């Protein structure tokens, strides 16, 4: 039998029909929706007079357009379009019997944080959502990726999707990461290495001892952000850490179902002789804390570097937009705002790490800093550990959950010309506000920048003050 990659095995296990060598119809185990990308799909479904085929395989979450400051009702949301999107999602879920985690549900949060919170992402599943960072669930050994509106409608109607077969690509992170190096630094290093389209058309499998050493939430960061390197799918072979992470959560399998999952995980990996169309190897020991200098996630350098000389017209435009000068030390770049949040870096481990940097220190004068936990579940867990007090004492705002400043789609929008240290995944022009300038980095690096008022190597600060 031909040796297979894990991606190919998962595709085989969910194949309903093979249309041609490049297209396969896959069954979808879980479909996740939000208020932003689902309305048109439901409208198309209703126009065709179709029903949702498997409501029990759907989950809807409010996360993109909601404010993160306290409100008591949807009526308090100032943006009429946002209110309508939230209300429309609720109406559609009621009409079709779909579970909705709405704005006032104690489980609410960013969809890619909520699903793991609940224990709904399991090894071997197919999970799709109208959001590109659905690849997050690859950290559990799931085949997961983002889809468009027409595909959302197709899943609602059939619980299947036409899938274009991807080329398997292995990214091996070898060696041992040094002190202060996070999963965010690792994935930023990979993207800087391969470029913004280096994994286009590929299903990326992360491997290597540095990946195995990461905890599950760090692996989620890898799978989440490799989309910015062009990957359509990201996956990591599941292990005991994954099972430990899932076990005991409210929607985790129980009894015989749990034992069956444990048994499946044992052989859930690429065959030793499997062939990958592309191989990339990165030594974790060579990675330093990274920040982006431009307007694409692959425009990143170690924070102790100088702003590079532009080599292309696009790089020259990026420097102009960012207001930087070639040869300028990155550590000389001052910030106006610091943001810790997003589906990439707003989990409990991220907040713990940032709090360790902030403990006993204060945000620099003139810097506005906010922390937005990825879900109400994460927020409650952080508060139980007293992390909220650390953030507040340092001068951060402690917010409710949602996508917040990751994208300019709600109340948390940066002003033109403001410069941000951000734990998000995209630094495109206008991503966090028209004319706003975003520097991507890890949560600990955001904390360090907030304290000093400029881009800073977190390793210089050491532990708590």
UniProtKB/TrEMBL annotation:
Its EC number is 4.2.1.33. The lineage of its organism: Bacteria, Pseudomonadati, Pseudomonadota, Alphaproteobacteria, Rhodobacterales. Pathway: Amino-acid biosynthesis; L-leucine biosynthesis; L-leucine from 3-methyl-2-oxobutanoate: step 2/4. It holds the Pfam family Aconitase. PANTHER family: 3-ISOPROPYLMALATE DEHYDRATASE (PTHR43822:SF9), HOMOACONITASE, MITOCHONDRIAL-RELATED (PTHR43822). Transmembrane segments: none annotated. Residues 8-453 form the Aconitase/3-isopropylmalate dehydratase large subunit alpha/beta/alpha domain. Signal peptide: none annotated. GO terms for molecular function: 3-isopropylmalate dehydratase activity; 4 iron, 4 sulfur cluster binding; metal ion binding. GO terms for biological process: L-leucine biosynthetic process. [4Fe-4S] cluster binds at residues 343, 403, 406. Keywords: 4Fe-4S, Amino-acid biosynthesis, Branched-chain amino acid biosynthesis, Iron, Iron-sulfur, Leucine biosynthesis, Lyase, Metal-binding. Belongs to the aconitase/IPM isomerase family. LeuC type 1 subfamily. This is 3-isopropylmalate dehydratase large subunit. Catalyzes the isomerization between 2-isopropylmalate and 3-isopropylmalate, via the formation of 2-isopropylmaleate. Heterodimer of LeuC and LeuD.
């Amino acid at each position: 039998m031909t040796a297979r990659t894990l991606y190919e095995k998962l595709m085989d296990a969910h194949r309903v029909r093979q249309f041609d060598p490049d297209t396969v119809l896959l069954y979808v185990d879980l479909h996740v929706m939000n208020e932003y990308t689902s309305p048109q799909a439901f409208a198309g479904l209703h126009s065709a007079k179709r029903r949702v085929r498997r409501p029990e395989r759907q989950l809807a979450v409010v996360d993109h357009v909601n404010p993160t400051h306290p409100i008591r009702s949807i009526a308090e949301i100032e943006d009429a379009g946002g209110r309508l999107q939230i209300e429309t999602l609720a109406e559609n879920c009621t009409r079709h019997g779909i579970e909705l985690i709405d704005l006032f549900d104690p489980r609410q949060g960013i969809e890619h944080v909520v699903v793991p919170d609940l224990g709904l992402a399991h090894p071997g599943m197919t999970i799709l959502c109208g959001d590109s960072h659905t690849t997050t669930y690859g950290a559990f050994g799931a085949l997961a990726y983002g889809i468009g509106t027409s595909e959302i409608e197709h899943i609602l109607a059939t619980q299947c999707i036409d899938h274009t077969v991807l080329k398997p690509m292995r990214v091996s992170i070898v060696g041992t990461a040094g002190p202060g190096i996070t999963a965010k630094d690792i994935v930023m290093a990979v993207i800087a290495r391969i470029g913004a389209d280096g994994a286009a058309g590929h299903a990326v499998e992360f491997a290597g001892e540095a990946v195995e050493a990461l905890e599950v939430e760090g692996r989620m960061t890898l799978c989440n952000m490799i989309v910015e390197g062009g990957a359509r799918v990201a996956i990591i072979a599941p292990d005991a850490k994954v099972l430990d992470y899932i076990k005991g959560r409210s929607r985790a399998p129980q009894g015989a179902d749990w034992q069956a999952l444990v048994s499946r995980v044992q052989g859930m990996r690429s065959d030793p002789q499997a062939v990958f169309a592309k191989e990339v190897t990165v030594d974790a020991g060579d990675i330093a804390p990274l920040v982006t200098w431009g307007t694409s996630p692959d425009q990143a350098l170690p924070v102790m570097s100088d702003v590079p000389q532009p080599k292309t017209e696009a790089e020259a435009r990026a420097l102009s937009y960012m207001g930087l000068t070639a040869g300028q030390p990155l550590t000389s770049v001052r910030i106006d705002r610091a943001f810790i949040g997003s589906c990439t870096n707003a989990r409990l481990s991220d907040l713990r790490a940032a709090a360790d940097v902030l403990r006993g220190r204060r945000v620099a004068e003139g810097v506005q800093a906010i922390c937005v936990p990825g879900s109400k579940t994460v927020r409650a867990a952080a508060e139980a550990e007293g992390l909220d007090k650390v953030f507040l004492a340092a001068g951060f705002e402690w917010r409710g959950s949602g996508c917040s400043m990751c994208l300019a789609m709600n109340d948390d929008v940066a002003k033109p010309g403001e410069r941000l240290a951000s734990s998000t995944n995209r630094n495109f022009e206008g991503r966090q506000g028209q004319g706003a300038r975003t520097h991507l980095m890890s949560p600990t690096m955001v904390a360090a920048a907030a304290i000093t008022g400029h881009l800073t190597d977190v390793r210089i600060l050491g532990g708590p003050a």
